[in-house]
Amino acid sequence: GINAEYMGKADPRMNDEASPLFDNLRKLITTIDELRDLGLQQYISLPRIAVLGTQSSGKSSLLESIVGLDFLPRGDGVVTRRPLELRLVRVYGEEGLKPWAVFDAVKDKKFNNFNDVRAKIEELTDQVAGQKKGIVDDPIILTIYSPTCPDLTIIDLPGITRIPLAGSDQPRDIERITREMAGRYCKDPRTIILCVIPANADISTSDALKMAGELDPKGLRTIGVVTKIDIMDRGTDAKRMLLGQDIPLRLGYVGVKNRSQQDIIDRIGVVRALDAEKQFFSTHPVYSTMPGFCGTEALVIKLTKVMYNHIRTLLPEIVKELNSKIIDCEDKLHDLGPALPSTAREKTQLLWNMINTFTEQFKNKLRGKYDAKHQVKSNDKTLDKEMSAGAQVKLMFNKLYERYVDPSYRATKDYSDKDINKAIVLHEGDSIPGFPSIDAFLALVLPKLEELKEPADLLLGEVFAFLDSIACQLINKNFQRFPSIINEITEIVSKVLSQERDRARAIVDSLVDAETGYLFTNDFDYLTHRTAMIVKANEGADKKPIDPEKAFLTEMRNRIDAYFAIVVRNLRDSIPKAIGHFLVKNAQENMQFALFEEINKNHEIMESIGEPAHITREREAIQKMHDVLQRALRLLKKDPDLAAPLKIADDVDGGETKQTNSDKGGKKGGILSSMWG
Q: Are 55 and 160 in contact (CB under 8 A)?
């Protein structure tokens, strides 16, 4: 077959210098691959390489050169129509070991013939993207095991396409679709961008390089690959481009010579193409003077070095994210509770425990007690500053009759002198003139006292509604896994609160009735200063006679204002006490017993306990995620060579971890530090 010349031969790129580098990377990349095998990639992004380029920029030929095998579909127009996630695993074995491939979509089948691999890629592409060149963001996962490939994970993305292909299913906004798809993969800070730039185009107008600059503004994780370097105009070269003199990249550029379409038609294999590439660069007057900047071998070494340092740097961060997500999973599992028990006795015990938890939280909220056991964990710092329910109830109490205690308020402000005089005249009767009538006082003060009933009723209703809303929130939280009984539990709790509210209302009404139905006070100031309410003649040389009618009016105003203030002061204390004791406190004390009693009477509640399917699925999904995260953490911590960088993640809580260059790249590797300085 096409790959026959390659079978069993040593990788021509693996010179004596490169081999140690691959060996150093092997353990790290194998660890990352094992994390992928555990399924960690669906929860935490892992280091990888994404190939970014425009349509027909030479991406497929480049990948085949890196892998060392001919296996990708070919043709005109857009060839890569689904992202292809290539997991390259370098295997070691006896002479003549043949490479093989496995698709994630058909894990039970091993592909030894790479012509079949090509056909399978086309088949899987057509299944999802259609046969009319449609482009879909649904990756094909292909693992290649070969003695000739490096240990890398590379994502081949559909090329950025400006114009839809005629007669295809490609939409008119194909450019936006391909750009957004590339962006979703390349914006991940743990992804190395392999930016493919054809040498026969102006680098300053390269769409791929421009997009890479937007996704990686500092250029810290972008490697430029200059393709088609052999078909540049005669008399020109890519030296300035490769040296980064036009557009600099931190990780630099590498030039490669891929197979042309004619080479593929002539069935020139990858090994021969690599030999031809090496011959081209070694004999070129410019490129032969630029070792490390040209050739697939140089690119593979650069990728290997970059990925080695990249993974070593990211491991502590990955471990911190693992620990954080494990805690999140455990919190969610705690909220969901254990799986539903099977026996009636176990169900009863479970329900009792949930009721105990609910009533305990209800009490703690009203008492302002910090509930560490049931505290809702969140990154939202505002939760820590939320006022307790009990404090909010006290604020409601403080607002009772608020306008009546204002120093400027007077109970008689709505009464004119004419109104007061009329009341005095009407209730004077046949008694001797000159004495204020108690009946006139009652006629004026009682309407004002009647105004105090409505605020008291409103306060009681407000506190009741507040307690009911708190109870509903806690019920929904604690009984969320059993929505079939939430309504019944809510009705029982509302019934308890309503009963306590009615008892409290009777007390509140009695207090207001006592103040309005029987006028009396032992107030010291009122009793000792009552004569001060009587208007006296002005003393002095210019003494004037007192107007009897005006004196009566003033005295009546003073007495009404003083007595009304006393009643308001009394009720502002007694009504909150009554509501606090007979509603708030009694609800806390009687809630648990009432729930137990009502549930014991209602056997339908126990029989209807059942967990919805979505709760079961959610628990299973979270438990699966938790298990994967735990296994991934154990996998990372079991290797003593990884212990040093991982210990950083355990020691640092929250802040940034500062690492020296030796921490990040390589004194641990030894070989790398000697190779790269």
A: yes
Identify the pLDDT of residue 252.
93
Residue 91 to residue 108: CA distance in whole angstroms: 19
Q: Say what the pLDDT of residue 659 is.
A: 36
Residue 167, pLDDT score: 60
- Burial 661-676, CB ≥16 within 10 A → b, else e: eebebbebbeebeebe
> What residue type is 638 in one-letter code?
K
Is 27 strand, coil or helix? helix
Distance CA 97, CA 387 (A): 70
Quote the pLDDT of residue 342: 63
Question: So what's the pLDDT on residue 575?
Answer: 96
Cα 219 from Cα 223, distance rounded (Å): 9
Amino acid 536: pLDDT: 59
Q: How far is CA 228 from the centre of its chain?
A: 44
Residue 19 makes CB contacts below 8 A (sequence gap 6+) with none
d(CA 178, CA 180): 6
If DSSP states are collapsed to H, E and C, what string results for 381-410?
A: HHHHHCCCHHHHHHHHHHCCCHHHHCCCCC
Q: Divide the 677 residues of the chain into consecutive groups of 10 and give the mean pLDDT of each group.
A: 42 50 66 79 86 83 89 67 85 79 89 92 80 71 88 85 65 78 88 91 83 89 91 85 89 90 80 89 92 91 88 87 92 81 75 89 85 49 64 93 90 88 79 73 91 94 95 89 84 93 95 91 81 57 68 85 93 95 93 86 70 80 91 80 52 39 36 27
Amino acid in position 209: L
Strand-strand pairing, 152-156 and 48-52: parallel
Contact 555, 533 (CB under 8 A): yes
DSSP code string of 150-218? -SEEEEEPPPB-SSPPTTSS--TTHHHHHHHHHHHHHTSTTEEEEEEEETTS-GGG-HHHHHHHHHSTT
Coil, helix or strand at residue 219? coil
Rg, C-alpha atoms of the chain: 42
Tokens of 79: 């060839």
Task: Round to whole Å and give the CA distance between 665 and 648.
Answer: 15
Pairing of strands 253-255, 191-198: unpaired
Q: Rounded distance, CA 505 to CA 118, Å?
A: 81
466, 407 Cβ separation under 8 angstroms: no
**How far apart (Å, rounded) are the C-alpha atoms in residues 636 and 628?**
12
Give kind and range of the element (H or E) at residue 84: strand 84-90
Torsion angle, alpha carbons of 399, 404, 407, 413, to 10: 150
- Give the angle subtended at the CA of 55 by the CAs of 49 and 61, to the nearest 5°: 60
What residues have CB less than 8 Å from 122, skipping those under 6 apart?
73
User: For the CA atoms of 639, 644, 645, 646, what is the dihedral angle to 10 degrees?
Assistant: 60
251: Cβ contacts below 8 Å, ≥ 6 apart: 192, 219, 220, 221, 222, 223, 224, 302, 306
Place of tokens 């005669």: 234
DSSP H helical ranges for 8-130: 18-37, 59-67, 114-129
What is the C-alpha separation between 298 and 645, in angstroms, rounded? 28
Which of 93, 177, 98 lies closest to 135, judged by CA?
177
